[in-house]
Model the fold of this input.
Amino acid sequence: FFSPSRRMVFGWLLGGSCLLKQAPVEEKRGPLRLPLYHTKGAPNEGVYKLRMELGGHQIDAIIDSCSSDVIIVGQQCGHTCQHTVGHYPADAKTYTGKSSTASYVSQTTYLNWARDQVKFVKDLAERPLVGTAGSGIRPGLMGTNDDMAPNPSHPLHFGTIVKNISHIVQGGTMPGRSIVGLMPAQSSDGPGLGLLNPKDNKSFVNQFFGPNGVFKRPVYSIHIEPAGDTGEIILGGVHDDVQQWVPLLPAKEGAPYLRQLGQWMIRAKGVHIIGFNPKNPEEYTIMQELKDITKIRFDTGNTWLSMPSSVFRQHGHLGEIPGIAGLHFTLDNDVRLWIPAQQFSGSVGVANATGFGGLAEDAGLENDICIFGNEIMKGMTVACDLEKAQLGFGGMCTSVGMEEPMGCHIYQPPGVAK
Done:
C-alpha cells in the first residue's frame, strides 16, 4: 500500500523505525540443570521430585514419565492429598474457570485449571547432589558450547487437585500428588513423527519445548544417583554419559488405560536370566530366556521393577536363588541393560525404610510388558529426545554391544545374541 519512501516516513512519524514497535521475540535458552530428591520412609515416596515456584508459591512435584500434564495439589484438597510439599491457593485470581476429571485405573482426580508464571528452583542446599559410582563427579552436560540457562519464568497452564478418590482402597484414599508429566498425549500414529504438537497447549513438554517454549533443544535428561538419595534433571540438554539412543514405541501398544497418554515405552529384543559361572566368577551364563516380555516401560512415577502376573509367579523370587546374577535386556541399536539381582530383592522392610521397592507383581500388566521404576534406574541416565521420539541410555549397568557395563560388575554373558 505504501511505497518504500512513504513507509520510511510513516515509521519516522511514529518516532522511529516500525520494527522497533514490534514486541520483542524471546530468544530460546540453553539447558537448565535442576536437582531432584525423594523422601525416605514416607508412603509411596520412592519417587523423585523437583521444586517449582508457581505464582510465588513453592511446590514440590513428582517427575512422571508416564503422564502428560502439570497437576498441582490445590488448597481445597484435604486429607486425600497427604504427604505433599506446598499447594496452590484456592483464592488465586489465575483460575481459568475450567474444570475436569482424570481417571487412572481405580483413582479419580477432580481438577480446576489455572494459568500462572512458573520458575524452577535450581539450588536445594538441604539436598546436595552426590557423586556417580563413588567418583564424586556427576555426569557432565553434553555439548557444553550451549550456555546454561538462567532460571526462566514462563507461563504455565496446569490443573489443581480439589478432590481425589480411590475406588479400590478400602478405609482410606490413595493420596493425590503434585506431578509434572514428562510425556505428551500421543495420537494414534504413535511417536514415530515426533512428540511435539503445536496444537497442544496443555502438556508440560509442549508448553516448554514447543514453538512458544523456553528451550532451544527439545530434549531432557534424568540421572539418578547410585545410592538413590538424589538425582538431577536437565531441561533442554542431555547428560554426557548417554551412549546410544533407542526409538520409542507408540502408546497404543501399551496398556489400554495408557494408550492415550504419553509413556517411555521401548522394545525388548531379548530378556535373559543370567547366573554366575561356578568355575569363573567373572563369567556369567544364560539360565533362562523370558520370551514373553517384549516391551519395557520406564516409569519415573513408579518405584518397583514390576512384572506381569504370568512372569512374576514363575520368577518372583529371583533375588533369593543362589547363583542368580541378575537380568539382561537387549534393546534396539544393540543397547544392553544389566539389572543385578540384589536390586530386586523384594524386601518389604527395605521398601518401607527407603521408599524403594524390589521386584513386584502387577496384575494389570499385559503379559509382554515389564516396568522399570526408580529402583532399577539408580545409577542410570535416561534422556528423551522429543523431536526424534527416542530414549538415550548411559550410566551404570548400561552398555552398547559387547562393552562391559560401567560400575555394574556384570560382564557380557556368553551366548547372548545381538
Q: What stands out?
A: The chain is about 10% helix and 35% strand. The chain has two domains: 32-235, 242-400. The first strand starts at residue 32 and ends at 37.
